[in-house]
Amino acid sequence: MESIYNITINELEDFLVNNEEKKYRASQIMDWLYIKRVTSFSKMSNLSKDLINKLEDNFFFDKIEIIKKQEDKDVSKFLFKMEDGNLIEAVLMEHDYGNSLCVSSQVGCNMSCRFCESGRLKKIRNLTASEMVLQIMKVEEVIQKRISHVVVMGIGEPFDNFDNLVHFITIVNYPKGINLGSRHITVSTCGVVPKIYEFAKLPFQVNLAISLHAPNNEIRDKIMPINKIYKVEKLIKAIKDYVEVTNRRVTFEYIMLKDINDSKENALELASLLRGINCYVNLIPYNETENISFKRTEKEKILAFYDILKKEKINVTIRREFGSKIDAACGQLRAKGEVM
Ligand code: SAH
């Protein structure tokens, strides 16, 4: 038995063909699941009783439940409980261009980035593709609006759950289903280099973001253990290769951590590291959290860092501050939920 929300259109077609059913039924089933959003096979009234039985014998509808919602202006954070009791979260951001949802990919995370709340709670397990799909569907159900953009930037390292991630993207990208355009999907990684190469080979135009956060190995080693395995040079080489293969622009995320990575020298070093790469840098004011002692760089210093990058002709933006009042930094709500 498998969750029906784990199944791509091609897999569903194969299932049908192997079970003496017509292939075209697959798109009817997808329509019931993702357009009409029924949650039992018996409601799929254009299917034969026989087919419904076959579906019931092989697939189930899994559920995830919203147990808490926190709101602050145009940001809402949802705490979800999985069927096995594990907790994860998703953050909704309402922009003028649409509704963007930040989804989780794992329960906990093994990357142990020093500044990150998710990393304090080790990985318990990967999320299934269906649990990622359901984060979108549940939030849409609650807000009664469509999610137009998805960022895989919640709890977890998506490239440490690669197959489920690819499945998830395939399912939500299906045009007659949830129909999220691949350019509206962004995957963020701390830099699992071999997976960057695999990602480049995928047939979709999904955006890639890299959590860089440091301009050199000395700083990156201190704050991101992944750097001990894949050094900055290896990561940058992988990104250059990725851009060459895909012809797509990458985003570098750079959290501004007071007195760690925010000096003028750091800005200049970052500019020379990224020179010539088709990219842009997103400077992120650090969201301070109770359990971790890193502090956020002062506003003036963030602006000075920004100015240097601009002068050096690096495309750069400063992330609008989302959700710091509602613990919207990755992992914060879950961390609280667990101590409550
Ligand atoms: N593992 C993936 C995706 C999840 S983290 C990755 O590393 O990219 C999503 C982003 O939030 C990362 O850039 C991460 O470094 C950042 N982040 C984590 N804790 C944060 C905090 N307290 N404030 C601001 N950004 C944070």
Structure description:
The chain is of the alpha/beta class and 340 residues long. The chain has two domains: 2-60, DNA polymerase, domain 1; 65-326, TIM Barrel (Alpha-Beta Barrel), CATH 3.20.20. It is built from 13 helices and 14 strands. Helix 7 packs parallel to helix 10. It binds S-adenosyl-L-homocysteine. Residues 111, 113, 115-116, 153, 157, 188-190, 211, 253, 255, 284, 286-287, 289, 329-330 line the site of S-adenosyl-L-homocysteine. S-adenosyl-L-homocysteine (SAH) is lined by residues 111, 113, 115-116, 153, 157, 188-190, 211, 253, 255, 284, 286-287, 289, 329-330.
Decide which structural class fits the backbone.
Answer: alpha/beta
The number of strands is 14
What's the alpha carbon Rg, rounded to whole Å? Answer: 21 Å
Kindly, what is the distance between the CA atoms of the first and last residues, rounded to a whole number of angstroms?
35 Å
Strand content: 15-25%
CATH topology type of the largest domain? TIM Barrel
Unreliable residue stretches? none
- What is the total number of structural domains? 2
Please describe the biggest sheet, giving its number of strands, its sense, and whether it closes into a barrel. Answer: 10 strands, mixed
Helix content: 25-40%
Question: Do you know the CATH architecture of the largest domain?
Answer: Alpha-Beta Barrel
